[in-house]
Design brief:
321 residues, rod-shaped, alpha+beta, six-stranded antiparallel barrel, four-stranded antiparallel sheet, 7 helices, 2 domains, 26% strand
């Protein structure tokens, strides 16, 4: 909170100094301002114990540099479970799509060959019994038993032939669609598990300064609590205030020069925002005599390499070009 308070005090000082006609004036075309940083507060969407903090406060890091990781034992176990479940559903889908396995088909083929042999034997026995019956050698009941056996054996051949044909077919369309949806659901669960594991570690989204670290290793971090506070150089800007008489001459893109105590040289910047509202107004109705006391906030951004030379809260003198 200390940088925010210092920034607010500097802003108030800048407003009052311009409004009162202090150290800067419109004729000199230079105005008081201060540096402000738009920080990135990097947090995980998942809670956990801070297992490893890979950076230190004040360290410059590049884009993609690992920053911190949280303990992820439960999330990794859920990820492995999801991987195994996906493998099971994919195997079941493949099994339905290919029909019965080769050994199962071979069993049906062997049963069919056995039934065909039995049917052939029954057919031969039927022919002999019919001849014997016409010759009066066997009774009517014996002939009927032989005919029934031959018919049963022929039906068994037909049954096993149909079973063999079905065994070679894939699963029904409805079964395949249902199993395919099971695979899709398992993949969605795995994607969710992968995302949760990924959320347990954080890398720098951009290059910049590690402005602060907010937790120590071993501490519990709630979901959404920032662990690292970063300041990319492109997020450093300068705020300064100009009187109403100068406002009309300013536009986005106008170059300015930033002068600070201790800087080896002035830092170039460009106006990126011109406020349309007064930052300070006297407690009277506007008039030609009082409107000169109005000041407006202007924002300017230096180039990222130059921005790294500046620090949030630092007072500056901004010179218009």
């Amino acid at each position: 909170m200390a940088p925010i308070c210092r920034t607010s005090l500097l802003a108030a000082a800048a407003v009052l100094s311009v409004a009162a006609g202090g150290c800067s004036d419109s004729s000199g075309r230079s105005y008081q301002g201060y540096v402000e940083g738009e920080f990135l507060y990097l947090a995980s969407s998942q809670p956990g114990r801070l297992e490893h903090l890979a950076v230190n406060r004040g360290q410059q890091v590049g884009q993609g540099t690992p920053l911190f990781s949280l303990e992820a034992t439960e999330e990794k176990a859920a990820q492995q479970q999801a991987q195994q479940q996906l493998a099971v559903t994919e195997a079941q889908l493949a099994d339905l799509d290919t029909g019965k396995r080769a050994p199962e088909v071979a069993v049906v083929q062997a049963q069919l060959a056995q039934a065909q042999a039995a049917a052939q034997k029954s057919a031969l026995q039927r022919e002999r019994d019919e001849t014997q019956y016409r010759a009066g050698g066997i009774s009517r009941e014996q002939l009927e038993a032989t005919l029934a056996q031959a018919s049963s054996d022929a039906a068994r051949v037909s049954e096993l032939g149909s079973q063999l044909e079905v065994a070679r077919l894939p699963g029904r369309a409805q079964q395949l669609r249902a199993q395919s949806r099971q695979v899709q659901a398992a993949r969605a669960v795995l994607e969710q598990a992968d995302w949760k594991v990924g959320e347990k570690s954080m890398a720098a989204p951009r290059a910049g300064l590690v402005y602060d670290t907010l937790f120590r290793e071993g501490e519990w971090v709630s979901a959404g609590n920032p662990v690292v506070q970063m300041l990319p150089p492109e997020n450093i800007k300068v705020r300064f205030f100009v009187p109403e008489t100068v406002l009309g001459s300013l536009s986005v893109g106008r170059p300015v020069s930033l002068h600070c105590d201790g800087c080896a040289a002035d830092v170039p910047a460009a106006v990126t925002y011109v406020s349309s509202q007064a930052e300070y107004t006297p407690p009277v109705i506007y008039s030609n005599e009082t409107r000169g006391k109005l000041v407006y906030m202007i924002e300017a951004h230096p180039a990222p390499p130059d921005a790294a030379k500046l620090h949030p809260g630092q007072p500056l003198e901004v010179r218009l070009k």
